[in-house]
Amino acid sequence: MTVARPAPAVRRWPRLSRTRTLGVFYVLLGVVLVTRVAPALSDEPRRFLFGTGSDGVSWSFDPPTVTVVIGLALVVFGVATFAEHRLGSFVRGGLVLGGVLGVLMILVASMALSPTKSTNLVPLFVQSLKLGSPIALGALAGLWSERSGVVNIGIEGMMLAGAGIGFVGYALMNGGSGGLPLYVAVLIAVLAGGLFAALHAVMSISFRTDQVVSGVAVNLLAIGLTSFLRTQVLVPLNADSATTLPEISLPVLSRIPIIGDQLFVAKPIFFATFVLFGVSAFVLARTRWGLRVRSVGENPHAAEALGVDVIRIRYQAVILGGLIAGLAGAQFSLETVGSFDDLMTNGTGFIALAALIFGKWRPGSVLAASMFFGFARALGVRIQLLNVEISGFPLPSQFLQAVPYLVTLIVLAGAIGRAIPPGAVGRPYRRPR
Hints:
Elements: H1 18-40, E1 46-50, E2 57-61, H2 63-80, H3 84-87, H4 89-112, E3 118-120, H5 121-147, H6 155-174, H7 180-206, H8 211-237, E4 248-249, H9 260-263, E5 265-266, H10 268-286, H11 288-298, H12 300-305, H13 310-337, H14 348-358, H15 363-385, E6 389-390, E7 393-394, H16 397-401, H17 403-415
Parallel strand pairs: 1-3
Antiparallel strand pairs: 1-2, 4-5, 6-7
Helix pairs in contact: 1-2, 2-4, 5-10, 5-13, 5-14, 5-15, 6-7, 6-8, 6-13, 6-14, 7-8, 7-13, 10-11, 11-13, 14-15, 14-17, 15-17
């Protein structure tokens, strides 16, 4: 009788957690910075400026030295992830600080590879906020919709509709010469976004169409309609330049040294972004209607059992999000550019969706994530202005323009850890009979 021998055990490598995987990346990046990047950078001093005039300050640095310090810090933070169970919050703080140091490293390397000896970081910070503002509004539109349980892929279309229809209304009223018609045009843009959101709500809530397909349909409709309006209305009117919304200076705040005259002197929709986030955070957390929105997004059947009208609440939340998206569209055509071009939102609605996921559907975190994406855009512009050259060849502008979308891919690939959406998002609701 032959006795079967047990199969030899297969040796398996232990699986790396997400934290340790990021730690390995930090270690490898740190080693490359110390051994390869630092020796290749110019040791000629560079300078970061913070503000101008008598209120400004500066920091002079030696690029190779700063690169070595950042590289060693990344190695330490990376190694620490393998003792996460002992170090706890130190590891999480180290990973965040490592990300900040990574951004600093990009700036240091850009300065070292540029003929420019100094650059002012305050305008970079302010531009990050201004470029992040339409992303934030788009993300807020998605937040209201998805916290109620309705996926909103149509943010891009709602923003584009607001930008196009609002500017067409402006051009028809007085040819884009400013005054009261400009503010009426902003209202038209807001209502246009709400109308497209209402269409999405009808298809996805009442007809229970697949919510992703409904959002795509909204995007395609907005692209076709705004292109038609531009060729049939704006081109014959020769409406290629118009007066934009005027700047507002906030009293007292605009006199803060270094940043006051740049950050607190801006246009109204930019300021409205932060007001809307504050109001939205309060409404979601502190009001009965906000609690109902959250409840229908998590468990609509339980909410219905408690007397909440799920269908009505979802309609309200989706349309509210559309109104906000329309305001974001107005920021493009009526506040920033003063004209309208096909596809002028340039994928901002999709980046807003990434910011929504990055912020894990929480207003404060979503705002911070949106500004992070705005910083990615501003950083690409700044590097282009610095005329960065690698081995004598200028860095291609196309690469710099792709930076925000590269960041979007990294975020959606899971660099932020597990993001748990509202429990019922994407699920059509049927009333019990």
